[in-house]
Amino acid sequence: MTKIIRTAVGILYHDDEFLILKKQGNWTGWQFVQGAMEKGETPEKAVVREIEEETGLKELEVVKKLDLKADYWFMWEGEKVHKFLTFLLVNAKKKSAIKLSREHSDHKWCSYEEALREIKYDKKEFEKAYIELQKIKSMQKL
Prior knowledge:
With 142 residues, the protein is α+β, with helices and mostly antiparallel strands. It has a single domain, classed as Nucleoside Triphosphate Pyrophosphohydrolase, CATH 3.90.79.10. It has 3 helices and 7 strands, in the order ββββαβββαα. It has helices spanning 43-55, 112-118, 123-141; strands spanning 2-14, 17-23, 29-31, 33-36, 60-76, 79-92, 104-110. Strands 1, 2, 3, 4, 5, 6 and 7 form a 7-stranded mixed β-sheet that branches. Strand 1 (2-14) and strand 2 form a beta hairpin. The longest helix has 19 residues, at 123-141. The protein is globular.
């Protein structure tokens, strides 16, 4: 039997920096805030909930649900899992102190280049999201 997980991924930014978290547990590495959507929950609500749970940040604005999707398969505790990812651009209105959940051991705000270099997965999606963010920012300046 296959288990399906729908995940909201928050590409969280403030000004020109992006927040990445260092995952600990079954694998380690840098990633964006993400988590499974609960039954009946929209990607927008899920990503805000996950950001609050994993970082403690509250002043958030979901700027755009991106037209980017990814999926992959893996085995977890003897069960085949198909994970679907939805990516959202989220603006942290304030860079408040981060209160990490136990899922993560560290965090950092960093430039696009550093975030792209550091994240373990979703690099192509991040490149596309960054281009979209630059378009949104240029439209806001008009």
